[in-house]
Amino acid sequence: MTLATKITVFRLVCTPLLPAMIFLYSPEREYLRFAALVFYVIAGISDGVDGYIARHWKQRSELGARLDPLADKLLVNFGFIFVAANPHFQPGIPLWFPPLLLLRDGGIIFGAIFYFRRYGNVTMAARPLGKLTTAVCMSTFVGALLQFPYTTELLYACIALAALSGLDYAVFGRSNLIPSENVHA
Questions:
Q1: Distance between CA 151 and CA 132 in Å, rounded?
Q2: Burial of 58 by CB count in 10 Å (0-12 exposed, 13-18 middle, 19+ buried)?
Q3: What is the DSSP track for 22-72?
Q4: Nearest Cα to Cα of residue 59 among 14, 68, 109, 134
Q5: Which class for 63: exposed (0-12), middle (13-18), buried (19 or more C-beta within 10 A)?
Q6: By the 8 A CB rule, do 56 and 118 touch?
Q7: What is the reported pTM?
Q8: Total Cβ atoms within 10 A of residue 38
Q9: pLDDT (tens digit per residue) in 16-31
Q10: For residue range 80-105, what is the model confidence (pLDDT) as tens digits?
Q11: Measured between alpha carbons, how far is 56 from 69 in angstroms, rounded to an integer?
Q12: Is 122 helix (H, G, I), strand (E, B) or coil?
């Protein structure tokens, strides 16, 4: 297992800590909100570090290519689910938002499975609109943790971008298939 993949596995194993901190947060335990934010930032930095190591030290692996997006999706989706479920976050995330985000991510995952079964061992190239969606969703999550007053506006931008990027992946997915030997961490 490469160093890049080990960092990804560490992030995956630590993922339950974020929802636990968010679940236990209340105004009396304000430190948990900030601990969740610090943990989330560290997870984001480790995501960048494992990608850098994989690319620049040629430590790309198929396992890393599969686990890295899984770790990212679990961290963000679990975070949104628990912020939505905790009424102490104001402005909060509505309960209907996490299922919408999961619907998009599930569609992308099932689309990838379909392409894998139909075309063999391939990897889907990241789309620019997908990357923008991820950035806005991450900003929305950070806004919720910081109780930023414009979190609701970020939330609606995240929803619009998630819908557009889901459509983008559906329409342009086949043209962006990459043979599996070009995998990344």
A1: 17
A2: exposed
A3: HHH--GGGHHHHHHHHHHHHHHHHHHHHHHHHHHHTT---HHHHHHHHHHH
A4: 68
A5: middle
A6: no
A7: 0.85
A8: 12
A9: 999 999 999 999 999 9
A10: 999 999 999 988 899 999 999 999 88
A11: 19
A12: strand
| Calpha distance 115→9 (Å, rounded) | 25
Look up residue 180 and give its amino acid. Answer: S
Q: What's the token pair of residue 143?
A: 């806004």
* Single-letter amino acid, residue 38: V
pLDDT digit string (tens) for 30-72? Answer: 999 999 999 999 999 999 999 999 999 989 888 988 898 889 8
Domains delineated in the chain: 3-182 (1.20.120.1760)
Please return the burial class of 48, using the count of CB atoms within 10 Å of its CB with bins 0-12, 13-18 and 19+. exposed
Q: How far apart are the first and last CA of the chain?
A: 11
Q: Which residue in this structure is represented by tokens 């919720």?
A: 144
